[in-house]
Write a structure and sequence with these properties.
The structure holds 2 protein chains of 2 kinds. In chain A, 30% of the residues lie in helices and 26% in strands. Chain A is of the alpha/beta class. Chain A has one domain: P-loop containing nucleotide triphosphate hydrolases (Rossmann fold, 3-Layer(aba) Sandwich). In chain A, α5 runs parallel beside α6. The relative contact order of chain A is 0.18. Chain B is mainly alpha-helical. Chain B has a domain of 74 residues. The chains are: A alpha/beta, B mainly alpha.
């Protein structure tokens, strides 16, 4: 039974579209025919109980796992995403909970990690880091995203949890990204820092990115998403318009207690 | 390090950069210490304390002759410790540097003395041997995933054996090749020392001025006064050192002995060069990144294994350079070359100088500062005719203090980082 696609905002093509994804680990089927899609300028919450298949789905999208079955479409074209590098070349970036920042380097160095800009020390001689150009672009970008960081020359070790999350997200979207996956972006953050991350997610939407937020915190999910996709036992059991859904509906489909009400799929 | 002097609060929102108030230098310094961002401060204070104590105990300690001797005494350890700094930046360790320094000196001696080849060729062969040893160890560590501690411990034993094997029955090879002897034991003309120092000061000032102009041109806020202060401080130290070594240090007055010893010059150039590589180039950025978080570096697409192998090759190459300097100073290579306390002094120098054992924090200059501390303690104690038993205990205590400071600073950073 193929659930119909979620209502397309403005009838556009999804940025990212998965159809009938199956992934098994030995005897366990982690994903049994899951559909998923993100549209431009849309924030999708991916929720579900532990073991529902959220992480597996994220890793399929990020290219870490290859599904046994199913179709992976990006910007309307069918693709085979063979590695995380491939996914990031397409414009799909994932920010995992560990953030993968180098705490001993400053914000600019982290934003440009692996993509450093160079200039010759003197014309025709050795290439050195072009700190100035990197700082200037990083500064512009951080302002565009409304990220609040005290100084781009501060070491990441000296930043708060919310600021680190912001740096990790900024790095993910800085390089021409189209889709960003955020794994538990607000876990372990205080109220104010959570607010900061939420603002950042909103500015990603303004930039017309597709954002996928994986979270256990339903309050946050309701606060920032446009649509909520619920996974249970490796299946997509519901897709809600956040505006018209209630918490009870979502909880019910996560736990399977009261199945179907308000669900599209 | 300099850039943290110039932190400024920047508001994030659309309002853009607003002028901000910076607390005075002293307050910022106190703040940095509280947050565990101490850098080279303890070792510099330590050096001042050592100088004062030994000067009071024996006025000869601070004479140009003795201080120039001190610089010469630490040249070899300084070069080896620079390689150790690079390895520590990765968060790894290299226990083979002492043995490698001895072995590479022996390679040079064999090439020059036993085969009668020119001195410069011997130097090239010794350095090449070091690089190859480092490549081998680095590849073993990264490709076979064996901890660097174990691989280089095996190297420590193995290369020592190779040294004995190469030296064969003779046990000692005396060096008389003028090129090799001159590596450490000749002096730059006084005018050349001054000219090089002046050029260095000029280059530093010009570089800082250009950086400021470029920042202003790019519309970025100017850096604080801390960077200028640092340039002034470094220039002052350099000029003072050159002045010291340019005075006549012959106690009898005639014939005058003056000028920067070549060994000191070579070590300073090596350290400055590697400081440039670590702080200004992409490779250096990668070294710090791998030392900070290897996983983050890997995910950012940095070739982590290649960086590691290159660093181990550089470390062994610098160990070889240190070995050649020691051989030149001793006019000989023997079975104990690179043995004894060479390894431990080199590692102690790097750590005492302020390079973290936990990876990702440090500077090649800490090799020089740490070697100066260890060398000054040894030199001063010799002047006061202390037994080496006391010297070992004091050096051990200093090392313990340095590592404790490092651990303390790290826990402060973690505490304030949240």
């Amino acid at each position: 039974m193929e659930p119909p696609a979620a209502p397309a905002p403005g009838g556009r093509v999804p940025l990212l579209e998965l159809r009938g994804i199956r992934k098994r680990f030995g005897a366990v089927e982690a994903l049994s025919g899951v559909d998923f899609e993100v549209y431009p300028a849309e924030v999708v919450g991916l929720v579900g109980d532990n073991g529902a298949g959220k992480s597996t789905l994220v890793k399929v999208i990020a290219g870490t796992y290859q599904p046994e079955e199913g179709e992976y479409r990006f910007a309307g074209r069918t693709v085979t995403v063979s590695s995380p590098r491939h996914a990031s070349e397409l414009g799909i970036q994932t920010v995992y909970q560990d953030l993968a920042l180098c705490e001993n380097l400053d914000v600019v160095a982290n934003l440009y990690l692996g993509r450093e800009e160079l200039r010759p020390l003197l014309p025709g001689t050795v290439e050195i880091l072009d700190e100035l150009s990197m700082e200037r672009r990083a500064w512009q970008f951080v302002q565009e995203l409304h990220v609040r960081i005290p100084s781009l020359r501060k070491l990441v070790a000296a930043l708060s949890g919310g600021q680190r999350q912001s740096v990790a997200v900024a790095r993910a979207v800085m390089w021409n990204s189209k889709v960003v996956l955020l794994d538990e972006p607000t876990a372990a953050l205080g109220v104010e820092q959570t607010q900061q991350v939420k603002e950042l997610v909103r500015s990603l939407r303004e930039r017309r990115l597709g954002v996928v937020v994986i979270s256990h915190n339903l309050a946050d999910v309701f606060d920032i998403t446009d649509r909520i996709v619920v996974l249970r036992q490796g299946k997509r059991v519901a897709s809600f318009e956040t505006r018209s859904a209630t918490r009870q509906d979502v909880v019910a489909s996560i736990t399977g207690a009261e199945f179907g009400q308000g669900a599209v799929g | 390090m300099a850039s943290t002097f110039s932190e400024r609060l920047r508001p994030g929102g659309a309002a853009g950069a607003a002028p901000d108030k910076r607390p005075p230098l002293a307050a910022r310094l106190a703040d940095r210490i509280r947050h565990g961002d101490i850098g080279a401060l303890p070792v510099i204070l330590g050096l001042v304390a050592i100088a004062v104590v030994f000067r009071i105990a024996n006025p000869f300690f601070l004479t140009p002759l003795n201080l120039t001797n001190l610089f010469l005494q630490i040249a070899s350890i300084g070069a080896i410790a620079t390689g150790v700094v690079l390895v520590l930046l990765l968060g790894e360790i290299d226990l083979s540097v002492g043995a490698v320094s001895g072995l590479c000196a022996a390679v040079m001696a064999v090439v020059v003395v036993n085969h009668g080849l020119p001195g410069w060729l011997g130097v090239v062969a010794g350095l090449l041997a070091g690089l190859l040893i480092g490549l081998f160890q680095g590849a073993w560590i990264t490709k076979l995933r064996v901890p660097s501690f174990v691989v280089t411990l095996a190297g420590y034993l193995g290369w020592q054996g190779a040294l004995l094997w190469i030296l064969g029955n003779t046990g000692t090879v005396n060096l008389s090749d003028p090129f090799i002897v001159a590596l450490v034991n000749s002096r730059l003309p006084v005018w050349l020392g001054w000219a090089l120092a002046a050029a260095t000061v000029l280059a530093m000032a010009l570089g800082e001025w250009r950086a400021r102009m470029r920042r202003a041109g790019a519309g970025l806020p100017a850096e604080g006064s801390g960077r200028v202060a640092l340039v002034v401080l470094r220039s002052a130290v350099l000029l003072a050192a050159v002045l010291l070594m340019s005075l006549n240090r012959n106690p009898r007055g005639n014939p005058p002995i003056a000028g920067v010893p070549t060994g000191v010059f070579i070590v300073l150039v090596l350290i400055a060069l590697l400081d440039f590589v670590t702080t200004r180039t992409r490779f250096g950025r990668y070294v710090f990144a791998v030392g900070g978080s290897a996983e983050a570096a890997r995910r950012a697409g940095i070739p982590v294994d290649r960086v590691r192998i290159a660093v181990f090759a550089l470390a062994s190459g610098l160990a070889a350079a240190g070995g050649l300097l020691a051989a030149s100073r001793l006019y000989a290579v023997n079975q104990s070359s690179g043995g004894g306390d060479v390894l431990l002094n080199a590692i102690a120098a790097a750590v005492i100088g302020g390079t973290s054992l936990f990876g990702g924090r440090g500077s090649t200059w800490s090799a020089l500062l740490g070697a100066l501390v260890i060398g000054a303690i040894a030199n001063g104690m010799d002047l006061l005719a202390f037994a080496s038993s006391v010297r070992f205990m004091i050096t051990g205590a200093v090392l313990l203090a340095a590592v404790t400071l490092d651990s303390y600073a790290r826990s402060r950073r973690e505490q304030f980082g949240r």
